[in-house]
Amino acid sequence: MVTATITTIRRHGMVAFVLLACLAMSIATTAQANPRYAAIVVDVESGEVLHAANADETRYPASLTKMMTLYLLFEALENGSMSLHQALPVSAQAAAMPASKLWLKAGSSITVEDAILALVVRSANDVAVVIAEALGGSERQFGQMMTAKARELGMPVTQFRNASGLPDNGQTTTARDMATLSIRLMQDFPQYYRYFSTQSFTYRGTTHNSHNRLVRNYAGADGLKTGFIRASGFNVATSAVRDGRRILSVVMGGFTAQSRDTHMADLLDRGFARASLLGRGDWVAQSDFSGDFMANSGGRQAPETPAAPRGGSSTLLASLETSTIERQVATSAPPAVRSGTAQGSAEDPIRDLIARSAPPAASSERVVHRLEPVGPSGGWGVQVGAFSDADNARSLASRAADRLTSELAGARIDVNETNGPQKVFRARLVNLDENQAYRACRSLVQEGMDCMVINAGL
Fold first, then answer.
1. 63 labelled catalytic
2. Catalytic residue among 46, 100, 123, 395
3. Most exposed of 25, 132, 392, 426 (fewest Cβ within 10 Å)?
4. Does 123 qualify as catalytic in the annotation?
5. Quick check: helix, strand or coil at residue 162?
6. Hey, what's the signal peptide range on this chain (predicted)?
7. Among the options 26, 46, 66, 297, which is catalytic?
8. Within a domain: 241
9. pLDDT tens for residues 240-285?
């Protein structure tokens, strides 16, 4: 039965904003522990940013650079100035590039198609220079072409100096810019995007295997690129499709390739789960769940109204019209990656980052974030969503109840109607003590659902 509530929600999108506040705080914690870390998750069709952590902070692209090298090569194929079977000459400068490489000899040649495969599979630095010289005359001039193309594609921060991503203090980017490039590769050159799923290729009798284990191990992943230099940490851009929905994610600054891949799988899992909830068509304020849209994705342009700064939580929290009631908001680690995806070692520091909870919020905002309750008490519950339709709210609450462990089976579904000019129905599970409520929220977060601990008596 739909029950009346004593308190009101002054903004119907409150739940979404509170969750974003949690996210902003977790970003600050991760950035402090790993200054190289950045990530972004995008629903490609709508362009909505489902998750962003340091997405606009300057980072080194490493071999993600080669995605732009390939973009310009695909463009040349598209306009007919090059062909897949065209031979590209290998200069002494190209042959002298450090590994990883194909070990091309100066004076030899490589076809355009083999060059594409060498960049995707082997991440060959010598081949990157071959392409740069073929398209730009010199790698330096090609770097200028790359930067100009970045501006044309809507990448305002990225600067390219070379075609490979080898160390150069002037070669910088952001996770958001790399996401823009990844999406434009898929959208502008769908006929060539298939190359990014290649796991091995044979060149002159030697078989080379891909560094991109996510394409092998993550269900639905179909391509893009990894990268590493010491200054950048382990980077990856990954696109995956599930139930007809495509999500693109970029992770930068991983401590190891394995932990980077684990974190990427976590982000994709949670991105698909969140996008599925938003795509039901009745989520309150669903059209602007994050308020952040990629300008070059899915035809949805970025909002003209400036968004709150992404790096800090104080501005975001100040936008909440909170009541005087202290709200307890559960935060938790992302879910464990499915079997088959590489795991980091027990001492791997990025796994600690993934597992770390968000720090407490400022007391002046009356919002407290923590993993464990102060102590047991009765009349607690969890809220998993807010809808304009009671049936949809009940459906989501039922799904949440089905995912709880047997020890929490005593939770009761409650659809709570708010007072106000527009009806909003809150999907809740109640009849829990405080400890149970926090355990329930952690469990639901691990299943990819958003969750907020509440005192059901309020």
1. yes
2. 123
3. 392
4. yes
5. coil
6. 1-33
7. 66
8. yes
9. 999 889 999 999 999 999 999 999 999 999 998 887 766 554 443 3
